[in-house]
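User:
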Amino acid sequence: MAEFATQTLAARLRGMLPPPATMTEPMPAPIPRAHGQFRFQITVKGPSARILSRTLRKLVQEAGLGEDLTAVIDVDAMSFM
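Assistant: Predicted structure:
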């Protein structure tokens, strides 16, 4: 379920990203399972953290993930762990 949700979010995000922002394909997180939960990630890079954060928040709000899924947005991540 987590992998499918990540793929769905990525497909939507491709159409929402402002140029020249880029994103990776969805992939398992470096620690793919923690606390009984499966984890996937999409890395997004762009010139403005503010614009990217706004776009990502809008994506998550519109996605309606439900109670079983959680999306976390980590701005200026120092580590992907």
